[in-house]
Amino acid sequence: MISWLKFLAKKPYSEIDERIKNLVDTMNATGVITTVASCQGHFGGFVRKPPYVYFKAPVAVAALIEQQLREAAMFDDKRLKAFWLIKGVFDDNYCLTFLLYSPKYEQELTSLVRDAWDCLLNRKNLDADLLNLAAIVEQTLLLNFGDKHEPRISKNYKHRYKCK
Prior knowledge:
Blueprint: H1 2-8, H2 21-29, E1 34-39, E2 52-56, H3 59-74, E3 85-90, E4 96-101, H4 103-108, H5 116-145
Helix pairs in contact: 2-5, 3-5
């Protein structure tokens, strides 16, 4: 019984879910992306949350990743089991930030009738997607901006607002 209480307890934001940690670490290691919040997705029992990564980056960087995600879907890239998107959203300071998420996993959480096999299959596919998303992000940025420790963002890029 105690283990269930531990599972339901809210974790501090500083703790990154184990299954999404590689993606979050890869994004942060690029030097041009800063993750703000993330969730590996929770499908079982009373806790149902879709996976996501909320992050800050120059628009050009988010656009390149979105382009790769769309091309992966258009050309039936077998690395990803679900369609993933990047959506721009404003944070509490009215600064543009981005949300990496999959509509597939959000929609499936609205269905209350699910069998155990479906849940396990989704978890396996989602875990594979999270690992492959890390590779796609890293590959995209290295190909377009060079060394991940010294990214080459256009000198013309200026953010109009003072966002951190």
